[in-house]
Amino acid sequence: MESTQVKSLNEFHDVINQNKNQWHCWFYRGQSKENYKLTPKAGREPFLSKAKNDQALFEAWYRHAVGLQDINHLTDWEALAVAQHHGLATRLLDWSFNPLNALYFALYGGSLEVNEKDNCVVFAHYSTEEFVDTENHQSPFDISGICRFRPNTVSPRIAQQGGIFTVHSAPHLCLEENLHKDERLLKIIIDKSVKKELSQELSHYGVNSLGLFPDLDGLSKHINWAFVNLDYS
């Protein structure tokens, strides 16, 4: 795995731009800690040590979700993508076609404020592997290894985030240890000293909670952030 460190949005752009002739083969994921592995939530503790598998977790979620939202028309693939975007621990790992979206998630993780104590990271994954054929694999629980899944736009969040996924047949499988032949993985480390500045620059370009979470939750989160971090006086 290659690695580089950046201290500005311009430097980040320069790293991404090195591969501009193959952009369609690159996918991006932001993580708030540089030592985190590329492993789905269902493959991490405390979920990993539980006796029930991630399929049982999804089935429990689905039984309750049908009473809260109209998801009966969705395939299992689509429903699992919706569950992932609403926080369920699944075998899916989020990626994006948009490197700036990935940078946002690296800076914030799941928090309202940027953590300026630690470096964060954007992973860039190069792959020419075909996306999984969901017609032939009707269930996300009958695949083997790690494959890529491009969901239909079944929620505004997936659309806005440019969301795609890697699907890990055993959720504890980490991508960096299971790359396919000819795949590449680049680790772009974001220096902690510039994280706050980068968050403000991203928001100026519309990459913020409001843009990535087009609902009342995203709006509220963005207004809170802007009130604390931006000076419009």
Automatic annotation (TrEMBL):
Record SMART domains: FRG
Pfam families hit by this protein: FRG (PF08867)
All copies of domain FRG, residue ranges: 22-122
Highest taxon of the lineage: Bacteria
Listed name of the protein: FRG domain-containing protein
Organism per entry: Aliikangiella coralliicola
